[in-house]
Amino acid sequence: MRIFRLRLIFVLLLSASAIQAMELRVRLFSASDVSETIITTDSIDFCLLALDEQGKIIDTIYDVFADDSLRTFYLSSTPQGLSLKRGKTGLGFYKTVLFQGLDSLQQFRIRANKKERAYYGDLEISNRSNHLHLINRVNLELYVAGVVESEAGHVPELEFFKAQAVLARTFALKNLGKHAKEGYNLKDDVSSQVYHSRAHYTHKKLIERAVSLTRDTILVSSDCEPILSVFHANSGGFTVNSEDVWLRSIDYLKAAEDSYSVGVGSYKWTKEIPKERYFTYFSKMMGVKNTLEFQKAVLNLHLEGRQSHFNYQGRSLKLTKVRNDFKLKSTYFKAEIKGDQILLNGFGFGHGVGLSQDGAIAMSKQGFTYKEILCYYFQSVDLESLQYRQLP
After folding, report:
1. CB-based contacts of 343: which residues, under 8 Å, 6+ apart?
2. What pLDDT band is residue 7 in, cutting at 50, 70 and 90?
3. Three-class secondary structure of residue 336 per DSSP
């Protein structure tokens, strides 16, 4: 394994203390529309503020202190604006409200769309286009811990959690401006990183330790830019080139054999598809006749290893298209006829680019460090400790 170099990144102009204090704006329940929600504040002291369209405080709606036991609020989107109630008492209509705690460890619970989640930080809620936008203002490191738990919190492996923490932090810093026009930094779903709660379940303490031990550390490419820190569940034994899934070739995201993912976790899967539908699909997508010769070629796909395309008589079909259309777990599979069905024996789970979580867990169990795990899945990268330099 190559030894990582620790260098200073002055171009980011961020200190370790600045990184630790950095606040993100993360949109919650971003994959669905929210018309009403129930907010319960678990912290003792906080205040509820009204904001204008520029985010400036225009009024204090409510102060809640230690002797106040009623800390549940009901919010809904109405034509008059955001309706706010405390218990059965109406508190008025607003454009935007902010639940603000006395420190970054303010805790609250959100119930929306029949789901309940728990978070640290502050909560900003706006009435937009007849729906509620919920924005969590949260410390970067608390966000990273929440992402690690949401994305990978099921296996108590410290080095694996440390690797995931570095990737989560790297992604956050690389994508700070991704949704700037919408008024926040990141979403809470797979289009950004899954962030469905603060770290608070079974492995909370181990995750928090992993985040603390890797604090202010990110992965950068050879030109000192934060990398595209992608991962998936299981590579099926071979990772994939970035250009085989997306359009861009990235030098640190290259296909490689991955023995650590073989036989563990979500390595294998099967699916049956009606034979006529399967062959007709390939024939139609390729624009060729559905002959016996063509069907044989379709069945021979992947017999010589993992491929990115199905090629036949000078025509090509990208296998990510096949995966999406048939809702397969990966693009790596072998097919056989089983009566009037096609049986797919598949390998891996996810797009296959970057880190394989099952493989990283296996490496962690075998004693590899998080640095070695990251080096195994990303080529020509460095771990960077962010430091501060004053502008002249």
Report:
1. 270, 271, 272, 335, 336, 337
2. very low
3. strand
> Closest Cα to residue 120, out of 135, 102, 99, 142?
142
Question: Distance between CA 45 and CA 103 in Å, rounded?
Answer: 9
Sheet of 107-112: strand order equals: 89-94, 81-86, 72-78, 36-41, 107-112, 115-120
Contact (Cβ atoms closer than 8 angstroms) between residue 278 and residue 290: no
Q: Which two structure tokens, joined as six digits, stand for 248?
A: 């861009």
Q: Return d(Cα 318, Cα 96) in angstroms, integer.
A: 46
Q: Burial level of 236, CB count in 10 A (0-12/13-18/19+)?
A: buried
Q: Encode pLDDT of 370-388 as tens digits.
A: 999 999 999 999 999 875 3
- Cβ(26)–Cβ(185) below 8 Å: yes
CA angle 162-168-171, nearest 5°? 140
Please, is 224 exposed, middle or buried when counting C-beta atoms within 10 Å of its C-beta (0-12, 13-18, 19+)?
middle
- Which DSSP category does 286 fall into? H
- Reported as a single tens digit per residue, the pLDDT across 189-203 is 999 999 999 999 899
User: 238-289: per-residue pLDDT in tens?
Assistant: 999 999 999 899 999 999 999 999 999 999 999 999 999 999 999 999 999 9
pLDDT at residue 388 in the model: 37
8-state DSSP, 10: -
Q: Give domain limits for the chain.
A: 36-129, 141-262+352-386, 268-347
DSSP code, position 226: B
Work out the mean pLDDT of the chain and round it to a whole number: 90
Banded pLDDT at 61 (limits 50, 70, 90): confident
Contacts for 155 with CB less than 8 Å, ≥ 6 apart: 361
Contacts of 291 (CB under 8 A, 6+ apart): none
Q: What is the DSSP string of 68-137?
A: ----EEEEEEETTEEEEEETTEEEEEESEEEEEESSTT-EEEEEETTEEEEEESEEEEEEETTEEEEEEE
Residue 132 CB-half CA count within 13 A: 30
Q: How far apart are the C-alpha atoms of 145 and 150, rounded to whole Å?
A: 9
Q: What is the largest CA-CA distance in the chain?
A: 79
